[in-house]
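INTERNAL AUDIT FORM
Audit reference: QA-55
Scope: verify that the stored structure record matches its stored sequence.
Auditor: D.O.
Record contents follow.
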Amino acid sequence: MAKKVLVDTCYWIGLFYERDRHHKAAQKLEGEISRQEILIPWPTMFEFVDTRLARRREDSLRFRRFVERENVELISDVPYRPQAIEGVFGNPGGNFSLTDFMLRSMIEDVSLSVNALVTSNNRDFFDVCAKHDVELLGLE
């Protein structure tokens, strides 16, 4: 049975940008996660698909082909916005980005049934992944 793998922005950056320090690790993971059910949160799309990628036509088309695969689901951020906003602005000692709070909320959402998270920020997700038995597929 395929795992549901939630993918953080850093994976795409590592995979598509050869000079990124996570490039080799992202390439190594590509074969493994491409056989799984891939969950791509919209906030990570906003972070990755920027002007720099848009100017690299071949890469932007390659990413589009990836996103349009049958085993890929784009996850709306709408249900997670209130919790993420509160997490960022209601916690003066917090150190997570808005996108990280959204990912954490998605991991906590039992209806998504996330089995694994691909990220380079293991420290930011270790607690929530351990609590919900989500495997960390780190890029480090």
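Auditor finding: record pair retrieved intact. The longest helix spans residues 23-33.
Action required: none
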